[in-house]
Design goal:
alpha/beta, 6 helices
Length: 243
C-alpha cells in the first residue's frame, strides 16, 4: 500500500533529520525537499539527459572471478558508475583473441553476472582479430569467444564477445516524459563543431531505479566528438515528441 506524503510532511522529515545531524541552511532544506518531490535524476522538474562513452570492459561470473583472481576473490569497487549500484572494479583482465592478439588491461565492471561477457568497440575487435557482432547486453548466443587472463588463472570463453549496441537507461518517469516504454527505439542527436551526428536504434532499457543515461561506445563517441558537444537531443524514433 502506498502512502501519500505532502510537502509539509516532507519538510518536517527533512528538518528533523537536519536537526539530528547538526543543522544546515534553509536553502539546503529547500533543495532537499525539491529533490524528494521529483523522479530520480531529474533537475528542475524534467529529465537530466546524460550521454556517456562506454569504453571496452567485461562482466564476470562469481566463478570466473575466483579462477582469474584467486580462490575467495570478489570484485573490489574502485569507482561508482552513474547508475546506482554499478561500479568499475579495481580488477582488470587481459583479453586474448586469435593468433595471440591481445588487449592487456580491460576493466571489469560489477556487480557480477550470470554469464561472463566482453564488450568492445569495432576498432577493439579489429585489433583482437575477432568478428564481434553488434548485440544488446546479455544477448550472447552464437557470439565468438576469447581467452581471459588474470593474475591467478585463465578462462576460455566459448561465447560472449560483442560490440555493445547503443542504448538508453531510464526510469519509468523518464519513459512517460518521452512517450516510450522498455524495448522501444529512440534517436540521439549530438551537435558538435563540424562533427554533428544522429544515432538511430537507441534501445530503451527502462526500469524503476535507472537514471537517464545514453551509452555509446568509444568509436561512436569519437565520431561525434562528444567531448566538444554543444547540444544533445533524445527523441522517440519517427515522431516529433518532446525532447
Amino acid at each position: 500500500m502506498s502512502l501519500a506524503v505532502d510537502r509539509s510532511q516532507i519538510e518536517a522529515l527533512v528538518r528533523n533529520a537536519i536537526r539530528q545531524s547538526g543543522g544546515v541552511s534553509p536553502s539546503s532544506i529547500a533543495s532537499s525537499v525539491a529533490s524528494a518531490q521529483q523522479p530520480l535524476g531529474w533537475v528542475d522538474g524534467k529529465p537530466n539527459l546524460r550521454v556517456s562513452i562506454s569504453a571496452r570492459h567485461c562482466h564476470l561470473t562469481d566463478e570466473h572471478v575466483e579462477i582469474l583472481f584467486g580462490r575467495g576473490s570478489v570484485l573490489e569497487p574502485d569507482k561508482d558508475l552513474y547508475q546506482d549500484g554499478f561500479y568499475a572494479a579495481k580488477q582488470t583482465v587481459m583479453v586474448v583473441g586469435p593468433r595471440k592478439r591481445m588487449l592487456p588491461s580491460v576493466r571489469v565492471l560489477g556487480p557480477t553476472r550470470g554469464a561472463s561477457q566482453v564488450e568492445l568497440a569495432l576498432t577493439d575487435s579489429i585489433s583482437l582479430g575477432i568478428d564481434a557482432p553488434v548485440r544488446h547486453s546479455g544477448k550472447i548466443d552464437g557470439t565468438p569467444g576469447c581467452v581471459l587472463v588474470g593474475p591467478a588463472g585463465s578462462v576460455q570463453l566459448e561465447q560472449g564477445v560483442i560490440r555493445a549496441a547503443r542504448h538508453v537507461h531510464m526510469n519509468f518517469a523518464d519513459a512517460d516524459y518521452y512517450g516510450v516504454q522498455d524495448g522501444d527505439m529512440m534517436q540521439l542527436s549530438v551537435r558538435s563543431p563540424d562533427c554533428s551526428v544522429s544515432f538511430e536504434d537507441v534501445l530503451v532499457r527502462a526500469d524503476e531505479a535507472a537514471k537517464l543515461e545514453v551509452h555509446i561506445d568509444t568509436d561512436e563517441g569519437n565520431a561525434c566528438n562528444l567531448d566538444a558537444a554543444t547540444e544533445v537531443e533524445l527523441k522517440k524514433s519517427g515522431c516529433a515528441c518532446q525532447h
